[in-house]
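EI: anyone free to look at a 185-residue chain?
SC: sure, send it
EI:
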Amino acid sequence: MSSFEDADTEETVTSLQMTLYHPRHQRSGIFQSIKFCNRETLPTSEVVKFGRNNSTCRYTFQDKQVSRVQFSLQVFKKFDSSVVSFEIKNMSKKTNLLVDDKELGYLNKMDLPDKCLIRFGDYQFLVEKEDGESLEFFEIQFFLSIRPLLQENKWLPQKPTPECGSYSPCSIQNNSPMEVGENEW
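SC: here you go
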């Protein structure tokens, strides 16, 4: 047997790619503590927190509108699966979190879809998951978008996401054509 045949095969690692957008990212340095384009390997046992508090959050935002801990991501494995999944939990008492069209209040959590848009205040995160084999580690990588992700990816918001945490259904304008029956005018 050659050394090639004896060599261990390398496990692939589940990867989360997060593209971030905020309208004031260039002027205010909101994302200054995030290392863009670098892959960071984390243990699957770690609960990854995002927020304003740099002593409890791995990824921080320099913005007083963000809660000390805004949200967390935790790895888990479904019973019928060989790959890891993520759950997202809203940790903010003052701002709801939108994951695609699902609104999460304080301490609400849900499975993170393989591709989704997370929103709160003026923040938008496009999250894309690539499955890997490792149950010990996962990777996270950040990218910065200069354009709003809602428009760029043709995501139609179900509700606006104001920073105050409350939602007004009348503030969205739908400019797309709409089919109307004869008696609906």
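EI: Residues 155-185 have pLDDT under 50 and may be disordered.
SC: 👍
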